Amino acid sequence: MSIPETRIKELVAHRWDLASETFDTHASHGIQSERERDSWENTFKKVFPEDCLKILDVGCGTGELSILFAEMGHEVTGIDLSEKMLEKAKSKAHARRMDLVFEKGDAESPAYGPASFDVVINRHLLWTLPNPQLAITNWKNVLREGGMAIIIDGIWDDGTLGTKLRRATSCLGTLIMERKNPRKGHCGYSEELKSMLPDVRGPPPEKVEGYLENAGFSSIENLPLTEILEIQKQHMPFRERISFNFQYYLVHGRK
Fold this sequence. Notes:
41% of the residues lie in helices and 19% in strands. It is an alpha/beta fold.
C-alpha cells in the first residue's frame, strides 16, 4: 500500500526538521568560505535576467541562498515545509538585520498569484519532491513573462560500485577518526518513502531540462558547477572528500 501524498510531505518535513540543527555545518549546504560565497554570487550574476529581482526561493531550508540574494540587492521570499528550517532562516536574517520573508509553504504548489516573481529558484530540492513535473509547471505560473526558473541539483547517487565503495570508506573513516555517526544530521529516508520520490538519487541535468521543456520553458541551459564543488571539497577532511564526487549543475529556463 502506497503512502498518501500528504503523509509523504509530512515525513519529508519531519526529516528536515531533524536535520536543521547541523544542516549549515555540511559543506554542500552552508556556505563555508568567502571564496565559495563569491563563486556563488558570480554564478548568479551570470544567469539572473537583471538586477533588483523579486525572487522566490522554494525549499529555502535555512535561508543560506536567500540571504545571499538579499545581500545582492534582490527582494526575496523563501518557503519551506520544515518549520525548524524556517526558524533557522528567520534567525539568521534577524541577526543580519535583513528584511526577508520566510513562510511555510509547499514547494510543489507555491501559494502566490500569477506574475508574482521574476525568478523561482531552488537548491537540492527536486530529489525530495513526489511530483517534480507538477512543481516546475506551478513555478512557471507564478513567474512573470520573461522570468526564469533556476534549478541547482546533482546526481547524488549514480548507483555504481565505485560510489558505494567511496561512501563506505568515508563512513568508516569518520567512525574511526571522529567516533561519531557519519549519517547524523543527514536526511535518512525509509525505503518506502524513497520509492515515492522519482528523483531520489538526484536527477541528471538532461532530465531537469526535460521537465522545463515539458512545462513550456524556453532558452534552457545547463551550467556545470564544477568550481563550486571543488571549493567545497577544500573545507573537508580527506575521508569526506573521497565520497564527495558527483555531477553538480545549475539548469535554467525562461518563461
